[in-house]
Amino acid sequence: MSNLDELSSSPQAALDPQDEVKIVGQYYDDKTAKLVRKYGPGPRIHYHVGYYPSFEAPPRADDVTPDDIRGSIRRHQEDLLRYAAKIWDAEQRLSGRVLDVGCGLGGGSLFWAEEYGADVTAVTNAPEHAPVVEGFARECGVGGRVRALVSDAKQLPLDSGPYDAAVAIESSGYFDRPLWFERLAQVLRPGASVCIEELFITRPHGADVWAEYFYTKPATVLDYVKAAEAAGFELVDDVDATAATAPFWEESVAWTEAVLDSDSGLSPVDRRQLRISLLANRALGAEWQAGGARLGFLRFELK
């Protein structure tokens, strides 16, 4: 038995599945303003790590403004999508009808539509995000190619396909993987790709901070492979980018420190939440370095 076989996913919360979906949706609805503040102003707002193939530590917080650091974070988040586009051959695979499952505020959906001409269905379970995504799409001039769909990932409408690809950028950890792949097999065309960027555990409790801070359930690559194979998919690409994404947490810490130092108008509640975020981001950076998890890009194909 391999080490991966011995691993188990994070414990399932003792909640009804539908309650879990509602809790996660409400969590992201409540975070909208915070996401815009840290990663905005838009229209392409991303809520995922960045890609740093070469990186120098960010300057001291008293030498730069929060906007300076935010700009760097956003550039590296877009670099992550450009890296994904390269390894997934987006010109061929992500230029048709694409499902962006767990789309956040739609930054990735707009990226695939603007950069590759994709017709994107942006799937979210946060109802308040849908009009934001469609508003940003109109602002970018791709309103006709990006539509928001409020849906649980495992209940995607069967009459909406067939799609040429599905993408999940740091969102698949929220899904019931077997049911998600089963539904994807019903809405994707034969030969279609499922492209996943996610944090995967490599040993028990290897991503506990990630799981607890983001209310997600990280799993092993083997967990994904088993769920995908049961639904008729096969793994064709697996690329590790752990080291190249670790500096994101340094920049995230630097941004939070800069806001705490520069914004005297913060309420006590906001200041407390930022300090909690600061501690969590430092812990996430340590988790990235500890070897218990890896940031990877997977691509499955439907047989």
From TrEMBL:
It is an enzyme of class 2 (transferase). The keyword Cell membrane does not apply. This is SAM-dependent methyltransferase. GO terms for biological process: methylation. Residues 98-191 form the Methyltransferase domain. SUPFAM superfamilies: S-adenosyl-L-methionine-dependent methyltransferases. Keywords: Methyltransferase, Transferase. Its EC number is 2.1.1.-. The keyword Cell membrane does not apply. InterPro entries: Erg6_SMT_methyltransf, Methyltransf_25, SAM-dependent_MTases_sf. GO terms for molecular function: methyltransferase activity. CDD domains: AdoMet_MTases.
